[in-house]
Every structure is written in C-alpha cells, then in structure tokens.
From TrEMBL:
<dbReference type="Pfam" id="PF03450">
    <property type="entry name" value="CO_deh_flav_C"/>
</dbReference>
<dbReference type="InterPro" id="IPR002346">
    <property type="entry name" value="Mopterin_DH_FAD-bd"/>
</dbReference>
<dbReference type="InterPro" id="IPR036683">
    <property type="entry name" value="CO_DH_flav_C_dom_sf"/>
</dbReference>
<dbReference type="GO" id="GO:0016491">
    <property type="term" value="F:oxidoreductase activity"/>
</dbReference>
<keyword id="KW-0285">Flavoprotein</keyword>
<dbReference type="InterPro" id="IPR005107">
    <property type="entry name" value="CO_DH_flav_C"/>
</dbReference>
<dbReference type="InterPro" id="IPR036318">
    <property type="entry name" value="FAD-bd_PCMH-like_sf"/>
</dbReference>
<keyword id="KW-0560">Oxidoreductase</keyword>
<dbReference type="InterPro" id="IPR016166">
    <property type="entry name" value="FAD-bd_PCMH"/>
</dbReference>
<dbReference type="InterPro" id="IPR016169">
    <property type="entry name" value="FAD-bd_PCMH_sub2"/>
</dbReference>
<feature type="domain" description="FAD-binding PCMH-type">
    <location>
        <begin position="1"/>
        <end position="162"/>
    </location>
</feature>
<dbReference type="GO" id="GO:0071949">
    <property type="term" value="F:FAD binding"/>
</dbReference>
<dbReference type="Pfam" id="PF00941">
    <property type="entry name" value="FAD_binding_5"/>
</dbReference>
<dbReference type="InterPro" id="IPR051312">
    <property type="entry name" value="Diverse_Substr_Oxidored"/>
</dbReference>
<protein>
    <submittedName>
        <fullName>CO/xanthine dehydrogenase FAD-binding subunit</fullName>
    </submittedName>
</protein>
Amino acid sequence: MLDIKNYVRVQSLQEAYDLCQNRRNVIIGGMLWLKMQNRSVDTAIDLCDLGLNQIEDKGDEIHIGAMVTLRQLELDPLLNEYTHHALKESVKHIVGVQFRNLATIGGSLFGRYGFSDVLTMFLALDAYVELYHGGIVSIREFVEMRPSLDILVRIIVKKTPMQVVYLSQRNTQTDFPVLTCAISKMNQDYYCVIGARPLKATLLLDEKHLLDSSLSDESILAFADDIAQRVTLGSNLRGSADYRRHLTKVLIKRALWQLREEHNHGN
Ligand SMILES: Cc1cc2nc3c(=O)[nH]c(=O)nc-3n(C[C@H](O)[C@H](O)[C@H](O)COP(=O)(O)OP(=O)(O)OC[C@H]3O[C@@H](n4cnc5c(N)ncnc54)[C@H](O)[C@@H]3O)c2cc1C
C-alpha cells in the first residue's frame, strides 16, 4: 500500500525541485503507477498549480506540459493532425478512458518503462524533454540516462514535416503490449522504434540504406528482416523472444505498407 504523510501543491518548479531532492518525497502525476507500490512517502509533490496541463502551439514546436493527460494527447487536434493520428493510436489501448483521463505524460515518460507505448511514440517523433535541472535533452539521450532526482517539465515536439505510423500487438485489447512499433520518416530518414521488447523502447536506423531508393515490397521485407536481426528482444509472461522477433517483422512490414499507402494518397 502507498502511504503518504504530507501533500503539497507547489507554487514553483524550484519549490518542487527542492522538495524532491529528499528521496522520501515524490513527485506525483496521475498516481496510477505510484498507487500500486508498497511504499511510504513523506511528502507527495503535486505540480497541478503550475499550468503544465497544456498543449501549446509555439510555431515551429509543440510544447506538451508534464501534467497533460494521455486522454488530452489522444484527443488533441494539433498533435493528431501532425502525427496523422498515430499519437491517438499509441495511447488508445491503455486501459480505458477514465484511466487515460488521469495518467500524465510526465509520469509515463519519466519512468522510462519497458512496456511503454508513450515512450515508443515520442522516440519516433524525435522529441525533446525539458528537465528542470538537466535542461533540454533529446528523448534518445533521455532514454539512456540514469534515473535522477529531476522534474520533467515538458516535452517538445519539433514540427519537422514527417510521416509516422504506430502499431502494437496485445494479447487482449487493453493489456500491456507484447510489442510496440513506430516508424517515422523525417527529412528522407526512417526512424524505426521497437518497444515492449520487453526492454524499454529502442531506436534503430536504416543503417544499410535499404529504404533509400523506394518503399517496394522487396525493400520493406529486407528492412524488416534486418531490424528483426539487430534488435535485442527478451521473453516474459506475455511472449517469448522468438515470438517477439516474428512480431517485429510483421509490425514493421505493416507499418511501412501503411506509410506507403498514406504517401500515395498524399497524406
Ligand atoms: C494497470 C496499468 C496498465 C498500464 N498499461 C499501460 C500500457 O499498456 N501502455 C503504456 O504505455 N503504459 C501503461 N501504463 C502506464 C500508465 O500509462 C502511466 O504511464 C503510469 O500510470 C504513470 O503515469 P501517472 O501520471 O499515473 O504517473 P505517477 O504514477 O503519478 O508517477 C509515476 C512515476 O513518475 C514520477 N513522475 C511523475 N510525474 C513526474 C514529473 N513531471 N517529473 C518527474 N517525475 C515524475 C513519479 O514520481 C513516479 O515515480 C499502465 C499503468 C497501469 C497502472
């Protein structure tokens, strides 16, 4: 059971940062992950008064505050137009609407969970995270960073023209994913992200330039085979490493077929 002694609605990020340097205090998002833990907390630090529940169009960038919920991401017209509804696809299987009304993007990304649909999606968007102490770092860097006593303030998505497709495989509709796959194309480069491996999501590039000339059935198959060989996969109760390798090929092929289809229809 989670036991909380004090609750503070901080009035500044500095106040939150000072409080969270004590390991017995904890930043809270929607508390959906935290509440499942067996732990005693001195002070729960709530960021809800800091205006971080907004998705803002900043011209060349979209800023997503850490307290934005998964449901806001799912419904946001700007983000969904930019991602051709891939963002909606990435969160829509997470438990249910009431859950997504509470779960925050800050809580979803800061833990860098091995099962995360959200991390897979934002890696494919080549996003940045703003940490209060650590400053702005690319999400690629953030995934590899060791956990720290910092605060995730916002996520920054640069509006680079892109195509992106998100797919996941689940044993049942709202379970944790067995595998996640997001493929984006930005500035002629393909970004392939495989998550729920069951390790945290990883980005793989087209190192052999298999997709350079065209998205033909042959090049798509070759790329899917290449990634399936290179990606590190493991086993857990949801699936074996072999099954995940098979799924990797299937999801990559489907994602690239969809990308090609959308391209041909001018989306
Ligand atoms: C039953 C269940 C099923 C789930 N299924 C999926 C799924 O299929 N796919 C998926 O992607 N996710 C899934 N999740 C994860 C979920 O979507 C959220 O990511 C998770 O609940 C954390 O979000 P939260 O806002 O509730 O964070 P909290 O539980 O409040 O916090 C989680 C952690 O993040 C820290 N934290 C929160 N906000 C910040 C911040 N701004 N800065 C620094 N640290 C912060 C907290 O201190 C805590 O350590 C599932 C979770 C549960 C409980």
